Amino acid sequence: MKNIFLLLVILFALPAVAQQKSNVAKTDSILALLPQLGDSARLRAINELVQRHGGMQSGGRFLHMYLEEARRQGNVREEGIALQNLTTHYYPQFDNDSIFIFGEEAIRFSRQHKQYDRMFGSYTSLIRREDAQGRTTSAMRRADEALAEARELQNIFGISEVLRVISNIYSRFGQYEEAIRYMTESLEMFLEYQREYSNNISFARYSALANMSRYVNRPQDMLRYADSISVEVDRINRLSNLNTKTFSFLEMRYRAIAHAELNQPELALVAIRNAEAIYDPAFDTGVNKFYAAQLDNIWGTYYLATGDYDKAIEYLTRFVEYNERLEATGDMGLIFSNKLLSQAYFEKGDHIKVAEIQQRISQVTERRIERLFISQINELRTIYELDKIKLETERHLAKVRQQRIIIIASLGGCILLAVIVACVAWNRKRIAQKNLALYRRIKEQDKTAEKLDALEKDYRILKARNHTNGDTPPNGNDDEKTQQQLIFDRLREYLLTDRNFANDNKISIDKLIEQIGSNRTHLYEAVKAVTGKAPMAYIKTLRMEEAQKLLDATDKKIEEISELCGYEIQTTFNRRFKEHFGFTPSEYRNSGEIEKLVVSD
What is d(CA 562, CA 553) in angstroms, rounded to the nearest whole number? Predict the structure, then answer.
């Protein structure tokens, strides 16, 4: 809440004292508060600085600050916005290096994070800049790449934007039919996009189509696009508080020109009066006075259509002077306005002026062609140099790849050889271990046989001695019990030897039978008779008893005791221990009150 309060102070309290503080003082106040703000509030405050400084040189500083802050916070959305804004920020300054650096970075970043609308916005910024530099071939090549990517991604906004910038390139070269075709497709795609995102405005496309319709002498199309602009203005007024007076002014401009060219002077005059009523000198913020020049344009067109050629010449002369003042908009507007002025002088009968204007048109056209030719030659030279560098780079990379393949193949051979050597060594070790195990098994069988022989001999001596003393020979049941005890003793001795009870490989029933020299039935009956349990249940009990001893007598970790008692998985050991004793191993070890656990039978 504190952060929000501080931000509200920035956004609302500072403008209240705007008359007493300069913009510099406001900026310093916001900068002083930045360290006290949270992440989101800090971003909004820096954005306020960006808005205050707008297109000024200092605006770039705050845009860089915004980008750095977004990166520090890991805010992907705001980082993408900052990169795109930096691309457009350097447009008025003609800082082409910065435009392309941030534009390329914005495209890569937006593609990586799937911010496709911003990506295609950055694409179109670079295309327009390349075209403005006279690198039309590069601009069209980039436009084709962007359009292909937009179609592949099925990004409607991207397709519409790229088509619009392609249309503008054709229009700059006077190829209006192609320009209209691309702009019409762009408009169709944009209207589809607009149905989902209603805040977007299609005015620029309608206006471009109306302009180009005039160049190809289609006044009916101009009226149709003027009607569309009217509908768009009504829609915008319903959705927002955006000032649409400039849109309405241009709508009246198109209507006035179209009605004049259709010989409908009354309707043309109504449209001109409406345009004058809408016009506000505040529209013209620059030195070129675009909107004032358009009034000269429509009045000149009106008087040319109604036969008042002196007034037409007066207005159209000012309109030509306006186009001569423009430096960055190209020559097509100057050529077209001169053609209108030439027509007025022709209708008046002043053929000397017509010849002068036609000569001027020829000079502008020749200059334009020469400039385009030089720019294309320079672009081709640049492309040739780039292709040459690209070819040399590809050759170098091919050589590097070849060397890399040789190195990888050598390493692969070494690794394969090492694996083969390791496999041979492991196999030899495994064979040696098997031989050793076989040898031990034979020795154990020999020992077992010797023990059995000794027991049998002792039994015979004892039996003979009892017979000699006249004792009653033991009955069958006693003899059977003695035999079962012997089997059990041999089993227990084997299990305790070398901790065999903990080795799953040595306590299978077949293994036990082999070791004690008995069969499955005798083994089961012997263990059952002595312990009341099956052999495997008895082995589990023996493991638990051993675990108890280790917990009592040693400080070994429970995990280690688990392994010593034949349990590789500690959770299994914990469960079995609790089932047997009623406590987990940890509870047993940690309990100071339990002195002894009674092993259940």
Answer: 15
Cβ-count burial of 360 within 10 angstroms (0-12 exposed, 13-18 middle, 19+ buried)?
Answer: middle
The pLDDT value given to residue 12: 41
Structural domains in the chain, CATH included, are 476-590 (1.10.10.60)
Residue 493: half-sphere exposure toward Cβ, Cα within 13 Å:
12
CA distance 248 to 234: 10
State how far the Cα of 190 lies from the Cα of 157, in Å rounded to an integer: 6
Residue type, 492: R
What does DSSP assign to residue 281?
G
Is pLDDT at 6 greater than 50 in this prediction?
no
Mean pLDDT, to the nearest integer, of 4-10?
42
Per-residue exposure over 242-261, b if at least 16 CB sit within 10 Å of its own CB, e if not:
eebeebbbbbbbbbbbbbbb
- What are 340-355's pLDDT values in tens digits? 999 999 999 999 999 9
pLDDT of residue 600: 42
Distance from the Cα of residue 292 to its chain's centroid: 47
Q: What is the three-state SS of 193-207? A: HHHHCCCCCCHHHHH
| pLDDT computed for residue 107 by the predictor | 92
The DSSP output letter for 547 is H
3-class secondary-structure state, position 532: coil
| Distances in whole angstroms, Cα of residue 335 to Cα of each of 320, 346, 414, 575 | 9, 16, 75, 95
The Cα–Cα gap between 450 and 515 comes to 12
Given a contact cutoff of 8 angstroms between Cβ atoms, the answer to whether 49 and 30 are in contact is: yes
Q: Is residue 23 helix, strand or coil?
A: helix
15/106 Cα distance (integer angstroms): 33
Question: How far is the CA of 12 from the CAs of 42, 59, 62, in angstroms?
Answer: 16, 21, 20
SS3 285: coil
User: Which pLDDT band holds residue 458 (cuts at 50, 70, 90)?
Assistant: low
pLDDT level of residue 601 (50, 70, 90 thresholds):
very low
Identify whether the C-beta of residue 107 lies closer than 8 Å to the C-beta of residue 142.
no
